[in-house]
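Appendix B, Record 12. Input sequence as logged:
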Amino acid sequence: MNLFNTELEFFLLCLSTLFPLVNPLGITPIFLSMTEGYNHTDKISIAKKGAMTGSITLIVFALFGSVIFTFFGITIEAFQIMGGIIFFRTGLHMLDAKVGRTRTTVQEQKESITASEIAYTPVGIPLITGPGAITGAMLLSGQTQTPYNFGTLIFAIILVMATVLFIFLGGEKITQRFGVTGMRIIQRIMGLILMVIAVQFVINGITVVVSKIL
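Logged structural output:
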């Protein structure tokens, strides 16, 4: 019973830490804007691949994050700046309403294969799995003391990603309700917000780097 209570407490800690950092409710409008214009099948595929990418990323960094960062000499600040650049580029395209559209010609269908890669980046990384979520997974990993703790952490990660997938798929109803015009407006608003988030990511990363130098 003591083991169960201990694991339950750690599980709740993992959920309460990762869920706000991933923020599935907050990123859903951005996901909908990024996939605006794709058909239903493509949206499901992007959501599934994005959630899978997020799960694998968090699990890998939870288990080997410190080793990976140390081996390659990477810092969280560098990851924040990189994520900010990716976000800014994506937000700029969203602001120009260049994200996702229906492909009809053979050439456009070929181009859609490349476009589907948004499932991995920026949807999987850094939209779903950003610097905050990765840092959270690494910090939680540092608090694990037994194999049971690692199992609990991994289960919590999978549960959070499953929630993200569920909410993303439910977002299709939002698209139907607002229609094409409404989604175009939301797309531009979310693009602007995404660019602001991107700038903040870069500022946070640079601030820490400068403070270490000084």
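The longest helix spans residues 172-213.
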